[in-house]
Every structure is written in C-alpha cells, then in structure tokens.
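From: lab user (bench 3)
To: helpdesk
Subject: output format question, protein + zinc ion

Hello, I'm new to running complex predictions and I'm not sure whether the block I got back is the full result or only part of it. Here's what I submitted:
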Amino acid sequence: MTRSGRSFDPTGMPPLPAGPTVDYSLARRASIVALKRGTLATTDVCDAHPELMRAAKNIGEPLDAPCPICSHSTLRKVRYVYGDGLKHNNGRVVYPPEWLKELSGKHDEFTCYAVEVCIDCGWNHLLRADSAGRRFVSDGTPDKQRKRG
Ligand SMILES: [Zn+2]
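Helpdesk reply: Thanks, we reran it on our side. This is the complete output you should expect:
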C-alpha cells in the first residue's frame, strides 16, 4: 500500500501513523481529484483487496455518504488493529465494535485503522489511523496532550 492511504491491504502492515491520529481525508480527496483529472485510473482506486471486500460485505458499518466513485449507497467502514504487542490479534478486523475497548484495556499501544470500502465498485481508502491502548485515553488522545487542553 502507498502512503497515500489508497489500496488498503489488510494482510500487510500499513504505514505507521506519524502521530496519535492521522486523518487521511486530504489524501482521499486528492485521489478523487486525480481520478477526475485522469491521472489515476478507476482500476487504481477501485482495487479493494478480496479480504477487505469480504470484511466490508459481512461486518462493515454502513456509511451515510454515497461512494465517491460509483455514487451508490454501498460504502462501508472496516476497522483493523495492528501492533507488535497484539500478537495473534495483529491485523484483525475490529468486530464487534466493543472489542476495541477490550483490546485497549489489555494492551499498551496499538493502532486502529479505519478504511472506507465500496462493496459495489471496490473503491477503498484509509479514513484515519488512531493510536489506542492503555497509553492513550479512550478517545485516542494521549494523556499529555489532553492536559494541554
Ligand atoms: Zn463505489
């Protein structure tokens, strides 16, 4: 997967986020603009990994917005957790959603990636990456940043 957040591969380790939270919405918009300009082909952006597609279809959380590529109401959000300390849970899909809380209580630090997937055309893009675990409070903000206000 490129650092842009396109083409999320759930079987590989994604790029490490640069901070406690990384928002990929700018990169997402850039991908859509590039597609409209013709710099990117539909096949470049609608290439959801079979595993990702399967997770989106079975347990993805429906998103309100239409797909930016095919305009269908077929967008799903899938979350994955990665971290060396997670051991066998490294790279697993967050399901049910409450499982994330359980993991956060058991592990010091890991990263939760939220991916947007269209189960119709295969569009997929990272939405955000959040640090989680005991070192971080439940909203994903480290304690020291929280005190600053
Ligand atoms: Zn679509």
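A quick orientation on your result: Residues 25-37 form the longest helix (13 residues). Let us know if anything else is unclear.
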